[in-house]
Structure formats: structure tokens, C-alpha cells
């Protein structure tokens, strides 16, 4: 059938996207963005938004300066970046195993995408993220 080559092509395209993102992150580490804030919210209202320091935190995280990354944005450094990197690495392994070695390997990313397609999970995740986002913004500025 023609379905298998198309699926392999889509998987390889996803793997190429991961490689391009990694290359762009590497090139981003060569920029001087580490020193100053470019946040519109902070420059207008002089209050840190929950995402303030996210770019500088990412730059320090991918260059293994974890202490500085925690200083810029601890929520992203402790939760978002490691979770994302683990999912991307695990999905890349699944793509390579399925496409090149013809092994059947299920990715956690595909399982999460299946969970996200359910409405209840989407609503719970959305409400939880909004509550955490607002709580982090309050704690960051007023405590």
C-alpha cells in the first residue's frame, strides 16, 4: 500500500523539524539576548509577567547554565524545558526505530496527543495551566 511510505515521510519530516529547531537554538545561543529584557508587558507596566525571562532562561538552559536559568524563570526551567526535551528525544528515537530499523516503537508524544484529543483532558489541562500561570504571576511580583 501507499500509506506506509507517506507515514515514513511524515515521520522523517518531523525529525528534520526537530533538527532544525536544535540548530536554531544553537544559533540563538550566539546572540547577545542574555543581558536585557525585551518583554513588552514589563516595559509598559513594570510588572514581570509569568513568562518574563523565558528566552534568557532557555538560552542558559541549553548552554547548561542551570543556576542562571533558574534565576530568570524557574517554572520553565524546572518543568517545561526538561519535559519538552525528553518528549522530543523520545519521539526522535521512535521515528528512527520505526522508519529505519522497521521496529514497532510507540512514542509517549503520540500517546499524549491521543490524550489531548479528549475534551475532558483538554479542559482540565487548560484550566490548570491558567491557574498556575496566574498564581506564578502573582507570587513573582507580590511575594
Descriptive account of the structure:
- The chain has one domain.
- The relative contact order is 0.09.
- It is mainly α.
- The longest helix has 26 residues.
- This is DUF2752 domain-containing protein.
- Keywords: Membrane, Transmembrane, Transmembrane helix.
- InterPro entries: DUF2752 (IPR021215).
Briefly say what this structure is.
The protein is mainly alpha-helical and 143 residues long. Helix content is 75%, strand content 0%.
- Report the C-alpha radius of gyration, rounded: 19 Å
Helix content: over 70%
- The total of beta strands comes to 0
Major β-sheet profile: none
Q: Unreliable runs, pLDDT <50, ≥5 residues?
A: none
- Percentage of residues in DSSP E strands: under 5%
**Overall shape:** globular
How far the N terminus sits from the C terminus, by CA atoms, comes to 61 Å
For this entry, give a set of tags.
143 residues, mainly alpha, 7 helices
Task: Give the topology.
Elements lengths: L2 H26 L11 H6 L8 H9 L3 H7 L1 H26 L8 H9 L2 H24 L1
Amino acid at each position: 500500500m501507499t500509506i506506509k511510505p507517506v507515514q515514513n515521510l511524515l515521520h522523517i519530516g518531523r525529525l528534520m523539524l526537530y533538527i532544525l529547531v536544535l540548530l536554531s537554538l544553537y544559533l540563538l545561543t550566539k546572540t547577545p539576548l542574555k543581558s536585557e529584557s525585551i518583554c513588552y508587558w514589563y516595559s509598559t507596566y513594570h510588572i514581570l509577567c509569568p513568562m518574563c525571562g523565558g528566552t534568557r532562561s532557555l538560552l542558559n538552559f541549553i548552554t547548561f547554565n542551570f543556576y542562571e536559568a533558574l534565576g530568570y524563570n524557574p517554572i520553565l526551567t524546572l518543568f517545561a524545558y526538561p519535559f519538552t526535551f525528553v518528549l522530543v528525544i523520545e519521539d526522535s528515537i521512535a521515528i528512527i526505530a520505526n522508519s529505519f530499523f522497521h521496529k514497532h516503537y510507540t512514542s509517549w508524544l503520540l500517546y499524549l496527543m491521543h490524550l489531548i484529543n479528549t475534551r475532558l483532558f483538554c479542559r482540565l489541562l487548560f484550566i490548570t495551566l491558567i491557574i498556575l500561570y496566574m498564581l506564578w504571576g502573582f507570587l513573582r511580583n507580590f511575594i
